[in-house]
Design a protein that fits this description.
Layout (H helix, E strand, L loop, with lengths): L5 E8 L3 E5 L19 H11 L7 E5 L3 E5 L3 E9 L3 E2 L2 E2 L5 E4 L4 E4 L4 E9 L35 E4 L24 E7 L8 H9 L2 E7 L3 E5 L13 E2 L4 E3 L7 E3 L6 E2 L3 E5 L1 H7 L7 E6 L2 H16 L1
Parallel strand pairs: 12-20
Antiparallel strand pairs: 1-4, 1-11, 2-3, 3-10, 4-9, 5-8, 5-10, 6-7, 6-9, 12-19, 13-14, 13-20, 14-17, 15-18, 16-17, 16-19
């Protein structure tokens, strides 16, 4: 922290999982360190855009809700991503919009109504000491976050914020097409991987023509999907590097889509990898929700990502 850092909030009530997240920790997987970062890139990026912050600024990822913050100064902020029933001094908080929070006001995240993870960004960003080049909080590895040790928010924590950049341009509200309804069954774009030809033809048909359900065994490391059993001809595989969105199929035939806090290597055969925005969409799915896998190409995935960044830049 520095002379331009001030306390923005203190934690009056801690929810089950509220973490500081930026764009992620890169260039360290050779050390066995995962990337971390916002599980929903889309919601995180739009919250920062509305708050007038540049790409990479740290925001608060609130999972499930149950969090109460009290403002210690006037702040410009935005909440995007999931609807967790957020209120400001008891009044419903507008989502996907830039708002002003006054000193002493209480910001409360209640429970999931639409989606799983909400993103709170403040003008100037939340401030913490970087660890290995990032403040992304990975609880399992004890890295990042407000204390540098990978801790989730606890009662009494005080959250530092930076001063807004001079001349920062922010939007008053996100366009309608950016405001996703996470209750709609998700269609997840998947890039076929190196082992896809080793799955049986029937398994491939089932993979892309069946409805999958999000299992309750889901966290920031990965999401298990339940549905038809997939069979692969590969009995064993030398462990190899695992990227964001990798869809592994263990011996029980139920796919696991790996997210931001995944392990760095794995030895299960893979159908392929979800695109970054599809991985983000999956991160907003509650247990029991239906999703479908849709085969995609590298060109389609790149176009999707370019359109996303272009929308943020407009």
């Amino acid at each position: 922290m520095n002379q331009y850092t001030v306390i923005g909030f203190h934690v009056e009530r801690a929810g089950p999982l509220a973490l500081l997240q930026d764009a992620g920790r890169f260039g360290v997987r050779r050390l066995g360190v995962t990337q971390g970062g916002a599980a929903d890139l889309h919601g995180w990026a739009w919250a920062n855009r509305l708050a007038g912050n540049p790409w990479g600024t740290a925001a608060l990822e609130v999972t499930f809700g149950g969090l109460t913050l009290v403002a210690e100064r006037d702040l410009t902020l935005a909440v995007a991503g999931a609807d967790l029933g957020a209120t400001l001094d008891g009044e419903p908080l507008p989502l996907w919009e830039r708002i002003t929070c006054r000193e002493g006001q209480r910001l409360v995240f209640a429970a999931p109504a639409n989606g799983l993870r909400a993103y709170l960004a403040v003008a100037g960003g939340f401030v913490a000491e970087p660890v290995l080049g990032s403040v992304a909080c990975v609880v399992r590895e004890g890295l990042g976050g407000f204390d540098g040790r990978g801790s989730k928010l606890a009662v009494g924590d005080r959250l530092a914020v930076g001063e807004p950049a001079s001349g920062a341009h922010s939007l008053a509200a996100a366009p309608a097409e950016a405001r996703l309804d996470y209750r709609v069954p998700a269609r997840l774009a998947l890039l076929p991987g190196a082992q896809i030809g080793d799955f049986t033809g029937q398994s491939l048909y089932r993979a892309f023509n069946s409805a999958w359900r999000v299992d309750d065994r889901a966290d920031r490391m990965g999401v298990r999907l339940t549905g038809p059993r997939l069979a692969c001809r590969i009995a064993s595989l030398v462990s190899e590097g695992i990227g964001l969105g990798a869809v592994q199929v263990p011996p029980d035939g139920q796919p696991i889509a790996l997210l931001n806090d995944r392990q760095t290597i794995g030895g299960y055969p893979r159908l392929g990898a979800l695109t970054p925005l599809s991985a983000s969409r999956l991160a907003q799915c509650l247990p029991g929700q239906e999703v479908r896998l849709v085969a995609s190409s590298g060109e389609q995935a790149l176009g999707e990502l370019r359109r996303f960044h272009a929308a943020l830049a407009r």
